[in-house]
């Protein structure tokens, strides 16, 4: 997959949800993917083992979910999920209609009723090393600037022993997945590792941040059957 979309099939989408979705309740979501002439798109490519990747983030980007709706046919994807708290969420659907070289992105804001979560300010991490689920994860960049092709590298070690982890497992057909979103949730990047060889401890992604500013990135990796999701908040300078 290239760092910049080159061959995207234009799409439209129709989102269906219950009238007043409630936090903590099972909420069915239906997404109809159509072409520019309003005809449902019938065929989708399986990309990283799925026909649709769906990401849900809260407006403050504190909540992140990566799930996979079921393809019902005739352009319709269905899934049921539970929103953890009241507030606004952005839902992003990533699909590749047959014939597309890169994925088409459809998104939708929803309001969920219920007690809101305490808003978490999006503050860039001072240190790009943290411990999540017993793993010490570091993030580094070849250079960090907007509009430049750059490498971002996650390094994963056992937190207790500092032992590099070199037996990561493929997760959805890649050694890892990274999603990056701008602070306003407008820019979305889904990045895959450059090489499929090697199982850690370094996982290298290549991407371009389209604009300067604050982004949240979530790296997802699989180790011993469990998916590890590691968030970082970074500030991408202009140059
Ligand atoms: Cu996915």
What does this structure look like?
The protein is mostly beta strands and 239 residues long. It has two domains: 12-112, Macroglobulin (MG2) domain (Immunoglobulin-like), CATH 2.60.40; 129-236, Immunoglobulins (Immunoglobulin-like, Sandwich), CATH 2.60.40.10. The protein is built from no helices and 16 strands. The strands form four sheets. Strands 1-2-6-5 form a four-stranded antiparallel β-sheet, with no helix packed on it. A four-stranded antiparallel β-sheet has the order 4-3-7-8, with no helix packed on it. Strands 9-10-11-14 form a four-stranded antiparallel β-sheet, with no helix packed on it. A hairpin with a 2-residue loop joins strand 9 and strand 10. The structure holds copper (II) ion (CU). Copper (II) ion is lined by residues 50, 53, 66, 68, 172. Residues 50, 53, 66, 68, 172 line the site of copper (II) ion.
């Amino acid at each position: 997959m290239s760092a910049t979309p080159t061959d995207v099939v234009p799409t439209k989408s129709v989102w269906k949800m219950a009238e007043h979705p409630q936090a903590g309740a099972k909420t069915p979501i239906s997404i109809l993917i159509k072409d520019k002439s309003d005809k449902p798109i019938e065929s989708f490519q399986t990309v990283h083992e799925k026909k649709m990747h769906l990401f849900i983030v809260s407006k403050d980007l504190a909540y992140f979910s990566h799930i996979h709706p079921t393809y019902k046919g005739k352009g319709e994807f269905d899934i049921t999920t539970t929103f953890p708290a009241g507030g606004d969420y952005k839902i992003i659907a990533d699909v590749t209609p047959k014939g597309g070289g890169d994925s088409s992105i459809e998104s939708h804001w929803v309001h969920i009723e219920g007690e809101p979560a305490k808003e978490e300010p999006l503050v860039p991490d001072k240190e790009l090393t943290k411990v999540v689920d017993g793993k010490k994860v570091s993030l580094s960049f070849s250079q960090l600037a907007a509009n430049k092709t750059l490498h971002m590298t996650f390094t994963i070690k056992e937190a207790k022993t500092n032992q590099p982890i070199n037996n990561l497992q493929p997760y959805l057909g890649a050694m890892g997945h990274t999603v990056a979103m701008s602070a306003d949730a407008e820019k979305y990047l889904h990045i895959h590792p450059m090489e499929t060889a090697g199982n850690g401890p370094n996982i290298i992604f290549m991407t371009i941040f389209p604009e300067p500013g604050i982004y949240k990135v979530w790296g997802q990796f699989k180790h011993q059957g469990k998916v590890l999701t590691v968030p970082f908040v970074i500030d991408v300078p202009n140059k």
